[in-house]
């Protein structure tokens, strides 16, 4: 059911498929950490040219590392700092074509060149962020943003 070969290569249709797969993965599970772990694994399998996919959870006024796939990462990020903190503060997805040009970028993996971060809210309460890094410049576009925002929405509705 979760084989990468099932994807079509048509990005919009593939996001529809991965979002359906996410729903199937989490529909009968109530544990947040288990669901976020499977969600990060699903994205890491699905997305090409990424070196990190995971979550930071909002706790006590800061973002704390949650389930992820990739190299070890920064454990804590201040609210409003870096791409993750900025996305959360601005309450919107932040796409960064070149992380080296983002003021205040927090470099957890020197191989990362571009990044997309989507905030996750439920009933106007901060849950955290979905963070994905790529070793390629300008990896993420509007189609990725739309698909990942839907992915985050599915998660927030189930958390």
UniProtKB/TrEMBL annotation:
<dbReference type="InterPro" id="IPR029016">
    <property type="entry name" value="GAF-like_dom_sf"/>
</dbReference>
<protein>
    <submittedName>
        <fullName>GAF domain-containing protein</fullName>
    </submittedName>
</protein>
<feature type="domain" description="GAF">
    <location>
        <begin position="42"/>
        <end position="158"/>
    </location>
</feature>
<dbReference type="InterPro" id="IPR003018">
    <property type="entry name" value="GAF"/>
</dbReference>
<dbReference type="Pfam" id="PF01590">
    <property type="entry name" value="GAF"/>
</dbReference>
<comment type="similarity">
    <text>Belongs to the free Met sulfoxide reductase family.</text>
</comment>
<dbReference type="InterPro" id="IPR051330">
    <property type="entry name" value="Phosphatase_reg/MetRdx"/>
</dbReference>
């Amino acid at each position: 059911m979760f084989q990468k070969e099932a994807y079509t290569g048509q990005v919009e249709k593939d996001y529809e498929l991965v979002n359906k797969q996410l729903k199937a993965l989490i529909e009968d599970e109530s544990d947040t950490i288990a669901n976020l772990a499977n969600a990060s694994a699903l994205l890491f399998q699905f997305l090409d040219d990424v070196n990190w996919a995971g979550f930071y959870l909002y706790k006590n006024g800061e973002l704390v590392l949650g389930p992820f796939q990739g190299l070890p990462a920064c454990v804590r990020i201040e609210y409003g700092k870096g791409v993750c903190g900025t996305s959360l503060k601005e309450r919107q997805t932040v796409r960064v074509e070149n992380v080296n040009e983002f003021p205040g970028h927090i470099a957890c993996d020197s191989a990362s060149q571009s990044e997309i971060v989507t905030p996750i809210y439920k009933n106007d309460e901060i849950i955290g962020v979905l963070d994905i890094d790529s070793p390629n410049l300008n990896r993420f576009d509007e189609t990725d943003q739309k698909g990942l925002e839907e992915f985050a929405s599915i998660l927030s509705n189930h958390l």
